[in-house]
Amino acid sequence: MTLETERVVYPREGKTYSLYGDTLDTDTYYHRIHTFADKLLEHNGDLPSLLDIVRNASKSKRRLKKIMSQPLDGSTQSIVVHRLGERFSLYTTNVASHLRGLSFAQRWDRTLATNEEQYHLAMLEVELVNRLNALRFRRCDTRLAFLPHCLRDLTADCQRTLRGEDHICKGCSSHCSINATSKLLRRHGVTPYIWITANLQSLFKRLRNEGKQVGVFGVACLPELVRGMRLCMRAGVPVLGIPLDANRCARWWGEFHPNTVNAREMETLLGEETELGPPPSDHLTKAARISDAHTHS
User: Could you tell me if residue 18 is inside a domain?
Assistant: First the structure.
């Protein structure tokens, strides 16, 4: 279920990835990544260790190419990289052509130069981090969300205003995904901001000094979402995240294109039943409880 109000939503083409794949919505992608993580955790029940394996695998493009050029060797890293490629390549069909079109200078931009295997690992990393942090995030007394301004209604004159930690949505357009997303977040007790000026590291330090337990919910394209989630975790902040349905902003295309985010998945992550979907699925809550017990043992 895509979060965009009062419009017919068609599959979005991304510069490198699109979670629509060959379907008319992104629900199929989320079912697939949930199932994939479930199966991995059946064989490797230590979620933090599996997350470390995924992160270490994504560090070296040369290492990833070597893994993909060789048959499965039985290691968890080899299984993860190969199986991700088999199951998730339909979501990253534009990566190769994008990389070929990069200028010499752009190839030094780690985000723009993310390769296909790194995209697949990013998909899994987001899923694992969400499972790891779900309960801790829900228990925080201060929960903030940071939304990308590329989700706004591109046909409207955005009336956002600076208030509190960053800019907030004024609800000026009923067709705006930021407007709809902000309303959803507020219903779950999360304060939404349009991320334009906030310095997260300074913000976390200040809130800790004020004695507040802060959790962060992020929305971004896959490479930037992973980077932001890692920043939060290094700061000891429980973070949840959901990727944009495709990467369609000016950084990738040179101009902005309309974008969306999956509402049903957001409802599941936030942890309450609403009219948009069912209660949190077992795959998330069970893993979160195991992780929570591991953290406090």
Answer: no
Task: Say what percent of the chain tops pLDDT 90.
Answer: 71
Residue 97 has pLDDT above 80, yes or no: yes
Q: How many domains, in total, are found in the chain?
A: 1
**Structure tokens, 42:** 């059946």
- Residue 8: inside a domain, yes or no? no
pLDDT tens per residue across span 144-195:
999 999 998 888 888 888 888 888 888 888 888 999 999 999 999 999 999 9
Q: List, in order, residues 6 or more apart from 262 with CB less than 8 Å away.
A: 1, 2, 3, 19, 25, 26, 27, 30, 242, 245
Which residue segment(s) compose the domain that 163 sits in?
A: 27-296
Mean pLDDT score of the chain, rounded to an integer? 88
